[in-house]
Specification:
alpha+beta, Collagenase (Catalytic Domain), Neutral endopeptidase, domain 2, 2 domains, four-stranded mixed beta sheet, about 50% helix, globular, binds zinc ion, transmembrane, protease, metalloprotease
C-alpha cells in the first residue's frame, strides 16, 4: 500500500486505475514487492512525448504517423553499397535442399543422351518424347521448389503499395541511419535518424516511441476528447450509467485543469493535514504546531539545532546502523543521536532523545524537566511514555497510509507466493524522498533536496494563505515564520532520511522473491520491531472484526530490526518533521503550480528537465484521470481504438509464441528431462489476456464500471480532495482483498496502457489494448514487422516465466522449487554470462563520466529481451515457411525497403521500438532504479547474443554486434 508518490517527480511505471497491485501502490523508490508482476518496460507516465501537433505527427486513428509525404530522400533506397550486397540474404536466400534440387536437372539431360544412341529412330523419338516430358516435369518441380522458397515479388507476398504499407516503410526509412554499419552499432543504425531528428522537449526527461504512443493514446480524440465537456452531446442516447461515468471523468479532469481554483484554495488543505498528523503524533518540542505560542516554537527551534548538531557527529553511527544486521544488538553504550548542547555553555555530551508526554507541555515545563534530557536511548522515561510512543507511531503511519502516504514501512495485500489462490498481508520497506539510497551519498543532490524540503515547508507551513489573505500579510500576522528556520527543519528531515537510506535494502534484493518471502507472526514482528504497536497498526488498517493475518510476509526482517534501533533513538520531533515532509512531498501534486515550484526544481536536478517549464497541464490531468479512473476512461478508448480483428490477430501471435517457446525448450540440451517437463507444463497452463479487463470491472459495460467506482466521490471544485479520496479508495480496495480469494480476472493495467506484464503468481501474460499499435503492431503490417514488435514483447513476457525471478514460481504460480540441481547450476552459470555482459555496458552521467549498467538488477529483463527476440523470430519463421505465398499470413515486402530481407527487417522492427533519447540525469536515475537496461543496450545486447542476427547481416567475427562470447539462456 505504498501508494504515495503520484507526483511526477519520481518516475514510476505506467499508472493504472486498478487498485490492487497498482504499480503506483507498490512502486515507490524502494518497494517490497516479492511477486510483483514483471513489466515489459518502465517507461514513465510523466515523460510523455511532444505535443501531437508538433514534429509533424498526426493522428491517423491507427498509430503515430508523419503528416504529409515522407521527407526528401526517404522514399529512395538507402545508398549504402554494403547493404545492397545483402539483398535477399540470410534465410531468405535459396540454400541447402534448394541448391540440390537446382542441380538435379543435369543428370536428367545426360541420361536422355545415352538413350538416344541405343534405340531405333521411332524408339528414340518415343523415348526422347518421354524424356522430354520427364525433363519438363523435373524442371517444373525445380522451378516450383525455387519459387516456393525464394521471395515472391508478386502476388500477395509481393510488394505492398497500400497506404499503410507506404507509411510504415517511410517511417522505418526515416528512423534509419544507413551510413552506420549495423554490425558495429545496430541501435544507431536503426534509430540514428530518430535520434538526429527528435529533440527531447524541455519539460521531459526522454523521448521515444514508447512515449509517443502513450501520448497518442491520451492526446488524440480518444481520451482527451471524451474529457471535453462537448462530448456530452455525442453521448446523447447512451444509457444513464454511461452518462454518469462521463460526468465523473470530466469532473475529475476539470478539477485538475482549474488552476485558478487551486490557487484560491492554496495550501490550506495540506497544512490542515499536517496539523491533524501532529495531533496523532505529538512531540514535546514541535516546530509545526500552529497553535503553540511563539515562545514554545523558539524553544523547539533551539532544541532542533541541538538535534541537528547531533546528526553531524552521527556519521559514525550511520556506519553502525549499516552493520546492525551482523551484530546482536546496539546496546553497547553508543548513542545514535548524540550531540553537544550548544549555546548553554556546556560541553557535556548528553543524549538528545526526546519522548512524548500524554499532553503537549508548555515550553517552561519542557525546559524545566530534566526528564526530557535524561531519557535513556530506548525512551524509557517510564512505561507509559514508551507505550504512548509505540501507539502514536502506529497511528501516524496508518493514518498517513490511508491518504496514500508511505513512511518507513508499507503495506500491501497480494497473492501469497506459496499459496497463490489466497491473499496475504505484506509488510515492506519504503520512505525515502530521493529515488534510491545512492543519491544520499551525493552532496550536490542532497543539498538541492534539502533546499526543496526547506522551500516546501516554508510554502505549506509558513504562509497560511487562507480566506483570500495574501501570503505577505498572512506572514506578518503570524508569529510562526519569523521564529522558524525551515532550513534547520529540512536538515533534520534529510539527516533522518540519510539514516533510513543507510539501513534500506538493495534494490536487487527487494526484487528477489525468495529473499523477500519471510513469513512472520504478529508476535514475531513485534519482537523484531517493538518500537511500533503492530496490533494497533492492523486494527487501524483492517476492517473491524477481521482476523489477525497469519502469517504476515515481511520483505526484510533485517530492515525492521535496524529500523527499530533507528526509531528508538530518533527524537519525536524529528519523526514528526519527517512525517510532515512525507505528507507535503506526496500530496503537493494537488497544489497549484506556483506552490509546487521547489518540487519542479528537484525534478530538474534529478532528471535534467527544465526547472522553469512544467508539463502542459492537460497532460498532467490526463495522467491524473488515468491514475484514478483508468478503467473507466479505457471504456472509451477500446470503443474507438480497439475494434476489428486486432484482438484475434494478437491472440494468434501470442499463441504461436507459446508454441515456439515449447519447441525451443525441447531443443535446450542443458535442461534435463524432469525440469523440461515442469517448464513445459508452465507454458501449457499459462493464461494469456489481451485487450482489456472483462470482469472486475468489465471495461465494456458502463454499469460495471459505475459500480466498480461507486465509492469514489469526485467533486469538480476540489482537486486536492479528489486526490485524497482517490488514494483512500485505492488503499481501501487493496486492503479489502484480505481474507478473499485472489481475483484471477483482475487486470493490473488499464486498457490504454502502453505496456505488458507477466504476473508470476498467476502465471499469466497480459497485453493491454494500448500496446497493440504501431510501431508494435498493426493489422496491415507484414508479419515480420509485427513479430519484431509485439511478437518480441510476447516472447519477452513469456521468458519472464523463466527468468531469475519467474523461475522460482511453478506452473500454478506457487513459489516452489521445480528445478533439478544440475540444471539450476547451469542456469546460474548462464545467468552470470548476462550479468557480466550487461555490466560492461555504460551510460554517461551529466558530467560525461561513464557509469556501468547493473547487470544483476537488470538480469531478469535482459533474459526476457534475449529470449523474446530469439523465440519470436522462430515463431515468425515457422509461419512464413508454412505459408510462403501469403495466403494465410501477410509477409509482403515494402516499397523502398527492397534492399532489406524480411529477416533483416524483423530485427529492425525490434530495434525500432526502442528508438529514444534520454537526458543523462534521467539515465543515471534509471540505472539505479529501473530493472530494465537502457534502450540502446536492450537492442545491442540482445543482437550481440544472436548468431542468427550476425548471419543475416553478414557481420564479421568480433565486430561490435558479433562478439565471440555469446550469452544464451532461452
Ligand atoms: Zn520485462
Amino acid at each position: 500500500m505504498a501508494s504515495s508518490d503520484t507526483t511526477p517527480l519520481l518516475a514510476g511505471q505506467q499508472p493504472t486505475s486498478l487498485p490492487r497491485h497498482n504499480p503506483n501502490l507498490n512502486n515507490n523508490n524502494n518497494n517490497n514487492n516479492s511477486n510483483n508482476p514483471r513489466h515489459w518496460s518502465e517507461e514513465t507516465e510523466d515523460i510523455l512525448g511532444p505535443d501531437p501537433n508538433a514534429n509533424g505527427y498526426q493522428n491517423t486513428g491507427a498509430g503515430y504517423r508523419r503528416r504529409g509525404p515522407p521527407p526528401p530522400g526517404s522514399s529512395s533506397l538507402p545508398g549504402n553499397s554494403s547493404l545492397d550486397a545483402q539483398r535477399f540474404s540470410g534465410r531468405d536466400r535459396p540454400t541447402g535442399l534448394k541448391r540440390i534440387l537446382n542441380c538435379c536437372c543435369l543428370p536428367c539431360r545426360q541420361a536422355l543422351y545415352a538413350f538416344q544412341n541405343k534405340y531405333t529412330k521411332t524408339e528414340k523419338y518415343s523415348m526422347a518424347f518421354a524424356g522430354l516430358c520427364l525433363l519438363l516435369a523435373v524442371g517444373f518441380l525445380c522451378a516450383y521448389v525455387r519459387a516456393r522458397d525464394s521471395i515472391p515479388l508478386s502476388g500477395k507476398n509481393g510488394i505492398c503499395t497500400s497506404r499503410e504499407c507506404t507509411i510504415v516503410a517511410a517511417d522505418i526509412l526515416r528512423d534509419l541511419k544507413p551510413e552506420i554499419d549495423p554490425c558495429s552499432d545496430f541501435f544507431t543504425f536503426t534509430c540514428g535518424g530518430f535520434v538526429d531528428r527528435e529533440t527531447i522537449p524541455d519539460d521531459k526527461a526522454q523521448i521515444g516511441y514508447f512515449n509517443l504512443v502513450s501520448k497518442h493514446n491520451q492526446a488524440s480524440e480518444v481520451i482527451r476528447s471524451i474529457l471535453s465537456p462537448a462530448t456530452n452531446n455525442v453521448q446523447r442516447g447512451k444509457d444513464d450509467a454511461a452518462k454518469r461515468n462521463l460526468v465523473k471523468l470530466q469532473s475529475l479532469f476539470e478539477s485538475c485543469m482549474d488552476e485558478k481554483k487551486m490557487s484560491e484554495i492554496g495550501v490550506k488543505p495540506l497544512a490542515d493535514l499536517v496539523q491533524k498528523m501532529i495531533k496523532v503524533f505529538p512531540a514535546t518540542f514541535s516546530i509545526l504546531d500552529t497553535e503553540a505560542p511563539a515562545s514554545s516554537v523558539s524553544a523547539a527551534m533551539a532544541h532542533l539545532r541541538d538535534v541537528n548538531f547531533g546528526f553531524q557527529s552521527a556519521s559514525i553511527n550511520r556506519q553502525k546502523l549499516q552493520q546492525l544486521g551482523q551484530e546482536d544488538n546496539v546496546d553497547d553504550g553508543e548513542e545514535m543521536f548524540v550531540g553537544e548542547i550548544q549555546g548553554n555553555g556546556s560541553d557535556e555530551k548528553i543524549p538528545l532523545h526526546v519522548s512524548v508526554d500524554d499532553e503537549l507541555p508548555g515550553v517552561e515545563d519542557t525546559l524545566a524537566s530534566e526528564e526530557h534530557h535524561n531519557l535513556d536511548k530506548r525512551g524509557n522515561a517510564g512505561p507509559a511514555a514508551a507505550k504512548a510512543q509505540r501507539e502514536e507511531l502506529a497511528l501516524a503511519i496508518t493514518q498517513l497510509a490511508w491518504v496514500g502516504v508511505t513512511t518507513m514501512v508499507d503495506f500491501d495485500v497480494d497473492a501469497d507466493p506459496k499459496n497463490p489462490d489466497d491473499n496475504v498481508f505484506k509488510l515492506g520497506e519504503n520512505g525515502l524522498g530521493l529515488p534510491s539510497k545512492e543519491y544520499y551519498q551525493e552532496e550536490k543532490i542532497v543539498n538541492i533536496y534539502q533546499k526543496t524540503v526547506e522551500d516546501m515547508f516554508a510554502i505549506v507551513m509558513g504562509t497560511p494563505t487562507t480566506d483570500g489573505e495574501d501570503a505577505a500579510s498572512a506572514i506578518s500576522k503570524s508569529n510562526k515564520p519569523p521564529v522558524v528556520d525551515w532550513a534547520e527543519v529540512a536538515k533534520n528531515v534529510v539527516e533522518f532520511e540519510k539514516l533510513l537510506a543507510a539501513i534500506s535494502s538493495e534494490q536487487e534484493d527487494l526484487d528477489n522473491s525468495e529473499l523477500t518471502y519471510n513469513p512472520r507472526t504478529l508476535s514475531e514482528i513485534t519482537e523484531l520491531i517493538p518500537a511500533i504497536d503492530w496490533s494497533l497498526v492492523l486494527e487501524k488498517l483492517l476492517t473491524s472484526g477481521s482476523e489477525v493475518p497469519n502469517p504476515i510476509i515481511v520483505s526484510s526482517p533485517e530492515y525492521l530490526e535496524k529500523l527499530n534501533a533507528l526509531l528508538k533513538d530518533a527524537p519525536a520531533m524529528t519523526l514528526q518533521n519527517y512525517f510532515a515532509w512525507r505528507l507535503i512531498k506526496t500530496l503537493s501534486s494537488g497544489l497549484a503550480v506556483e506552490l509546487r515550484k521547489p518540487m519542479q526544481q528537484l525534478k530538474a536536478a534529478l532528471q535534467g528537465v527544465s526547472a522553469d517549464l512544467v508539463t502542459p497541464r492537460w497532460e498532467t490531468c490526463i495522467d491524473v484521470v488515468d491514475n484514478s479512473l483508468g478503467a473507466m476512461a479505457g471504456h472509451y478508448f477500446i470503443e474507438k481504438m480497439f475494434q476489428g480483428d486486432s484482438k484475434e490477430m494478437a491472440d494468434s501471435i501470442v499463441t504461436s509464441l507459446r508454441g515456439s517457446f515449447v519447441k525451443g525448450l525441447n531443443q535446450l540440451e542443458w535442461l534435463d528431462h524432469p525440469t523440461l517437463l515442469n517448464a513445459t507444463e508452465k507454458i501449457d497452463l499459462l493464461i494469456q489476456k489481451i485487450g482489456y479487463s472483462l470482469e472486475s470491472p468489465d471495461v465494456r459495460s458502463a454499469d460495471s464500471l459505475e459500480d466498480y467506482f461507486k465509492d469514489l466521490g469526485i467533486d469538480k471544485a476540489d482537486f486536492f480532495g479528489n486526490q485524497i479520496r482517490s488514494k483512500t479508495w485505492q488503499t481501501n480496495q487493496t486492503l479489502g482483498e484480505l481474507g478473499k480469494p485472489v481475483d484471477k480476472a483482475k487486470w493490473l493495467m488499464s486498457p490504454q496502457t502502453v505496456n505488458a506484464y507477466y504476473n508470476p503468481s498467476a502465471n499469466e501474460i497480459v497485453f493491454p489494448a494500448g500496446i497493440l499499435q504501431q510501431p508494435f503492431f498493426h493489422g496491415d503490417n507484414p508479419e515480420y514487422l509485427n513479430y519484431g514488435g509485439i511478437g518480441v514483447v510476447a516472447g519477452h513476457e513469456l521468458s519472464h516465466a523463466f527468468d531469475n525471478e519467474g523461475r522460482l514460481y511453478d506452473a500454478h504460480g506457487r513459489l516452489a522449487d521445480w528445478w533439478s540441481n544440475s540444471t539450476l547450476e547451469e542456469f546460474k552459470t548462464r545467468s552470470q554470462c548476462f550479468i557480466d555482459q550487461y555490466g560492461n555496458f555504460t551510460v554517461k552521467d551529466p558530467q560525461g563520466r561513464e557509469n556501468h549498467v547493473n547487470g544483476k538488477l537488470t538480469l531478469g529483463e535482459n533474459l526476457a529481451d534475449n529470449g523474446g527476440l530469439k523465440r519470436s523470430y522462430e515463431a515468425w519463421a515457422a509461419r512464413f515457411k508454412s505459408d510462403p505465398h501469403g495466403n494465410k499470413f501477410k509477409n509482403h515486402l515494402l516499397s523502398g525497403l527492397e534492399d532489406y530481407s524480411r529477416d533483416q527487417l524483423y530485427y529492425m522492427a525490434f530495434a525500432r521500438v526502442w528508438c529514444s533519447q534520454r537526458r543523462p540525469a534521467k539515465a543515471i536515475e534509471s540505472l539505479r532504479t529501473d530493472p530494465h537496461a537502457p534502450a540502446k543496450w536492450r537492442v545491442n545486447g540482445a543482437v550481440q547474443n544472436s548468431p542468427h542476427f550476425a548471419e543475416v547481416f553478414n557481420c564479421k567475427a568480433r565486430s561490435g554486434m558479433n562478439p565471440d562470447t555469446k550469452c544464451d539462456m532461452w
